[in-house]
Amino acid sequence: MISLTDTQKIGMGLTGFGVFFLFFGMILFFDKALLAIGNVLFVAGLAFVIGLERTFRFFFQKHKMKATGFFLGGVFVVLVGWPLIGMIFEIYGFFLLFRGFFPVVVGFIRRVPVLGSLLNLPGIRSVSNRVFSIMFVNH
């Protein structure tokens, strides 16, 4: 079992609520208030979980500046009041920021009993391997 500090527990809660508000805001036709709350909670939760210094180091690495610009620019555009355009920017920035983690997540999902058996079916496995090698390995 992983032990978490109280600050990290608060961060996990904030991040979870942020994801919930973002999802709920998209379900309700891109409600800008819910998306803005979700963005603030998600970024604050991330800072609580990994710490302020590591958060800044993660977002402001030289090779991640484009991704950070799209993600934080999308947050700003949502806060200004254009939720659809802001979410498009955010999703693109999120994809660029966290694309290094996606192969790890797929590897983990392949070890989960029910989902792993689905991803390891012959047709699905070859397609997923090809898609992930094109999207994540070549960058």
From TrEMBL:
Q: Which UniProt keywords apply?
A: Golgi apparatus, Membrane, Transmembrane, Transmembrane helix
Tell me which Pfam families the record gives.
Answer: Got1
Q: Name one GO biological process term.
A: retrograde transport, endosome to Golgi
Q: Its GO CC terms?
A: cytosol; endoplasmic reticulum; Golgi membrane
> What is the recorded function of this protein according to its Swiss-Prot or TrEMBL entry?
May be involved in fusion of ER-derived transport vesicles with the Golgi complex.
Assigned protein family? Belongs to the GOT1 family.
Q: What is this protein called?
A: Vesicle transport protein GOT1B isoform X1
